[in-house]
Amino acid sequence: MRYIKNILLSIREEEKKLDLNSQNVIESTRKVVSFLLSKLERLRDYIMENGFEQPNQEIEFFKKIKPEIQGKLIFYNKVFKIESSCPSGMWDVHKKYFSDELQKIENIYRENTCNCPFYRYYRSGRIDRDEELFIRGQINIDNGLNSHIFESDHRFSTYFDYKVARIIGDELFYDYLIFRINSGLFDMTKAENIQQLVWTESKNALIELIYAIHTNGSILNGNVSIRKITAIMQSIFNIELGDIHHAFHRMKMRAGSRTAYLDQLKKSLEEHMDRDFE
User: N or C: which end of the chain has fewer CB within 10 A?
Assistant: First the structure.
């Protein structure tokens, strides 16, 4: 699987070059969409030629690896389309434009996504049906599938890998819209000042902090969504956290302390207080 890991590494390196804050976001996202398409095509050729040695490898690929890439492809393509269609005008015009798009996503989530059994299965971190959902050739038409499944390449899709990709892509796009709506709070001509702030702990550490801030109601007495807090943190620290809900679920399964970073913060603060007291 080294070939697959190298492709993932090349994608992450390419993303480091991408600056969604810049004035060149349209051209940048167009290029990254083309780049991701080429990587997916290479992965398809590799899988067709080599297959998988074990079922768990196939499950990991179609549940995590391919959806991560395809989800980013969906996300960057949406950013390209919405930015290239953005009307000219003052900031209030832009804000309404992005707010209307955000409202569409929220409506779709309320009316369809959150009531979908598969969404609940994926969000809960379950694995009991993975062999049915993420191994090729297991499609059951009695479940009432969307018609696009009949147009997909069944040698490189399980149908549900695309549904995971849509979840990832839509959530990244949701966060991006929140950032664009709130970008009036920042001076975008000085984006380089924001980029100088680099988060040097792990991504899981920042996710712990975000959840702590949200659950404690530390911002606006809790009247702010975790998505908005995440989008702001990602913007400030120039970092992509990906699927924070899935990461948080994995934290709940940790051996030992489930709040390792928060424990570390408490310990560091107490040690600092002790030194000051001395």
Answer: C
Instruction: Please give the Cα distance from 148 to 153 (Å, whole number).
Output: 10
Residue 1 pLDDT grade (very low, low, confident, very high; cuts 50, 70, 90): confident
Residue closest to 72 by CA, chosen among 40, 108, 118: 40
Kindly give, in sequence order, each residue whose CB lies less than 8 Å from that of residue 22, ignoring residues fewer than 6 positions away: 28, 191
8 A C-beta contact, residue 21 and residue 191: yes
Domain extent listing, the chain:
2-188, 197-278
Mean pLDDT, the chain, rounded, equals 84
Whether the pTM exceeds 0.85: the reply is: no
User: How far apart are alpha carbons 162 and 159 in whole angstroms?
Assistant: 6
- The confidence score (pLDDT) of residue 143 equals 54
Let me know the angle formed at the C-alpha of 61 by 207 and 35, rounded to the nearest 5 degrees: 80
Contacts of 43 (CB under 8 A, 6+ apart): 4, 7, 66, 69
Q: What is the dihedral of CA 106, 110, 113, 116, to 10 degrees?
A: 170
With a CB cutoff of 8 Å and minimum separation 6, the contacts of 14 are 32, 35
DSSP string, 158-213: -SHHHHHHHHHHHHHHHHHHHHHHHGGGS-GGGHHHHHT----S-HHHHHHHHHHH
